[in-house]
Specification:
mainly alpha, 6 helices, about 0% strand
């Protein structure tokens, strides 16, 4: 029995072969050198960017109204990086701590703020590396 693919028609619209050669090399290097799932996430995020960037430009996670992008990124993170499992583990740990509701809310808000700041920093780091890479490549 053939295994059913999880990719949608929209995801397949940008094939790996359609990406620039340097991007394909980075993805292949990630397959060899990065933890399991990271290359798949990079590949799918690159496909997402190749589909979306021409019409919308650079994605900024601090802008409201980007629900379609947030959903796509979360789906990729769930699929390749185990994001859904880590969220469930966090929620389970908070529930088991049996704290007052106010204390749990303060912890959740602080964790969300820390994650948001970290996510923004990593986003801009990735953007900086990508832009630097583009500015130093051969014409």
């Amino acid at each position: 029995m053939r295994r059913r693919s999880r990719t949608t028609a929209a995801e397949r619209a940008v094939a790996l072969a359609d990406l620039p050669a340097p991007v394909r090399r980075v993805i292949r290097a990630a397959e060899r050198e990065c933890p399991r799932g990271h290359a798949g996430a990079l590949r799918d995020l690159t496909r997402l960017a190749a589909r979306k960037a021409p019409a919308r430009g650079i994605f900024d996670p601090t802008i409201r109204g980007e629900e379609d992008m947030f959903k796509a990124i979360e789906t990729i993170a769930d699929r390749h990086l185990g994001h859904r499992g880590s969220r469930k583990a966090w929620k389970r740990a908070i529930r088991r701590a049996r704290l007052e509701l106010d204390a749990r809310d303060r912890i959740e808000r602080a964790a969300l703020e820390a994650r948001t700041v970290s996510d923004i920093a990593y986003f801009y780091a990735g953007l900086a590396f990508g832009l630097t890479w583009l500015s130093h490549r051969d014409p």
